[in-house]
Specification:
Number of strands: 3
Radius of gyration: 16 Å
Structural class: alpha/beta
Shape: globular
Order of helices and strands: HHHEHEHHEH
Strand order of the largest sheet: 2-1-3
Helix content: 40-55%
Distance between the termini: 27 Å
Largest sheet: 3 strands, parallel
Length: 125
């Protein structure tokens, strides 16, 4: 959550953001009313956005996306299925013309880093 907040607002996350990252049911971490490039696109251009990937985005930005399919980012040790869940939506979306922006957040590489660490080779796993 802190990194998603950082890339959408351009600001450094606070310590409170790190704590709220563990409270999945917490609604205080919603960014629906904050100044982000997503809200600027939606507000100024009435952009239609679609999203596939880490469901943290859906918790941070409720009602932001015209279409979305989130994948849980916690308790997942699989490195490929989470990314296939994102990729399976791409061909159909590219054939549609009813969206202005698409966000794809792939989780597999992130999960490899968390599970194996930076110095472990895991391509064969």
């Amino acid at each position: 959550m802190p990194r998603i907040k950082a890339i959408t607002t351009g600001s450094v996350p606070s310590f409170l953001d790190v704590i709220l990252n563990f409270a999945e049911s917490d609604k205080a971490s919603s960014m629906e009313s904050q100044d982000t490039w997503l809200s600027q696109l939606k507000g100024k251009r009435d952009a239609r956005l679609v999203f596939y990937g880490d469901d943290t985005w859906l918790k941070l930005f409720p009602n932001m996306f015209s279409r979305a399919d989130g994948t849980s980012s916690f308790f997942v040790s699989d490195f490929t299925e989470v990314d296939l869940n994102v990729t399976r939506n791409v061909p159909a979306e590219l054939k549609r013309d009813d969206w202005d922006g698409m966000i794809l957040h792939y989780l597999g590489l992130d999960h490899i880093g968390h599970k194996s660490g930076p110095n472990r080779y895991t391509e064969d796993q």
